[in-house]
Amino acid sequence: MSGSARGKSLGQRLNDFLLALIALEHRVDPLFRDGFNALFQGPLVSLVQALIRLRHPSRETSPCQEIPVPEEERITAEIAIEMGRFLETEYRGKIAERAGNTKTYGVVRGEMEVLSEVPADLKRGVFGAPARFPAWIRFGGPGPLSPPDVEDAGILSIGVKLMGVPGPKLLDERATQDFLGISCPTFTTPDIVENLKLQRHIGAGTPTLYFFDPRDPHYLDALMQGLFARMNRNPLFTRYFSCVPYLCGPGLAVKYSIRPLEPERTRIPWRIPDDWLRQAMAATLERRGVEMELALQRQGDPRRMPVENAAIAWSERHSPFVPVARIAIPQQRFTSPAQLAFARRLAFNPWHCVEAHRPLGNQNRARRTLYAELSRLRQAMNREPLVEPDGSETFPASPLSAGNAGEPPASLRKGSA
Fold first, then answer.
1. Is the CB of residue 240 less than 8 Å from the CB of residue 257?
2. HSE on the CB side for 88, CA within 13 Å?
3. Phi, psi of 104, deg, nearest 5
4. Residue 143 pLDDT class (50, 70, 90 cuts)
5. Are strands 132-140 and 246-247 parallel, antiparallel or unpaired?
6. What's the Cα-to-Cα distance from 25 to each of 28, 29, 362, rounded to whole Å?
7. What's the rounded Cα separation, in Å, for the pair 314 and 306?
8. How far is 122 from 299, CA to CA, in rounded Å?
9. DSSP secondary structure letter of residue 174
């Protein structure tokens, strides 16, 4: 046994064993996962969600109702301390990455076009009228570490930063609107009380024991995450969910979904490279552009579609997602060191938004503080200032790419409106 292994606690060794099982499953996942999902994912999600609602009935009785968590400010502050301590310890003497959604596969140029036929009740904020917005789109992985892709948790993330958005914003950026999502319709934790427990486990080196500690188990949340975690084929062809709700104008709460319009079944090699997902994205965008659809899901019965519990998915059968915009990602190169460094200087926060899209729920209220504080800490550790992009940014072509990557749309070129 190595010295580092001897120095680990029993809980840390058990955590490492469980992570090794996940990596092993990811090795064989491509052989069966598509078929498994087609047959079993839907029914199993329905069963798990029914059990979660039974164990955690909603106290909400009206649309958009927010019920603060007792001692919410204190809990948020403690989460910030735990996550900040982890960043300072893990990245001492190194380039600091994000504390969550940590691994960056790429930040790519895009454009979001608001559709002309948006239902009247959804014509709020940026969806109020047909328009085009340049965007930077970050595809990333889980956190808080950046392991080889086959060893990660199997949940992907997306951050869409629109630029040139008019009107006052709720947080520091002046002309942006951010939309965030992950590849599971529910968050890892239902609320900030449980999130604090998770952060303490992360600090102790035992994140998997948050789910499987028999003294305080979270088996249903583990099942829900596991039904969507997998060895992913390509971040460009994955569906993403906001998990938590947002206003869409006064009196209407919605969740977001972003999905590819023309999915492609990227082949995964048996010997999976450590940065496979970045390679898959780069290979796709070398030869073609990709279109995605942004859709909104209206809140129905607040007892079945609560604002405050992020472990409960809103039923698509009772409230289907309605398309409101398309996101075009043109053929391009994005893997140059300069562009990857630019990705570190971007701050994604759901509170980078207009009032019409104000975030709802305790997880979102905490994110306002957590994301801002952790972004400032990361930039201070890296001695890199945060940047609010405007779409005029340019970067040299990646030395790892070959061929003609093509130009972005005219609306994304420097000097365009």
1. yes
2. 10
3. -90, 120
4. confident
5. unpaired
6. 6, 6, 34
7. 8
8. 12
9. S
- The one-character DSSP state at 303 is T
Locate all alpha helices (DSSP H) within 151-212, ordered by sequence: 192-203, 209-212
Tokens found for residue 251: 């009196």
Measure Cα distances from 238 to 15, 180, 197, 309 in Å: 28, 14, 29, 24
Tokens at residue 326, please? 């398309």
SS3 content of the chain, % helix, strand, coil (to 5): 35, 15, 45
**Domain 3-412 belongs to what topology?**
Catalase HpII,  Chain A, domain 1 (2.40.180)
What local confidence, expressed as pLDDT, does residue 316 receive? 97
The whole-angstrom separation of Cα 346 and Cα 336 is: 16
Cα–Cα dist 346/109, whole Å: 13
Q: Radius of gyration (Cα) for the chain, nearest Å?
A: 21
Distances (CA, A) of 268 to 39, 54, 261: 21, 39, 21
Residue 213: pLDDT band by 50, 70, 90 thresholds?
Answer: very high
**Of 415, 387, 401, the residue nearest 174 (C-alpha):** 387
**Average pLDDT over every residue of 19-34:** 93
On the CB side of 81, CA atoms within 13 Å amount to: 9
List, for residues 44-70, the tens digit of each pLDDT value: 999 999 999 999 999 999 999 999 999
Joined tokens for residue 322: 């309605």
Domain chopping of the chain, boundaries: 3-412
Q: What DSSP state is assigned to residue 400?
A: T
Question: Alpha helices, DSSP H only, in 37-113?
Answer: 42-55, 72-90
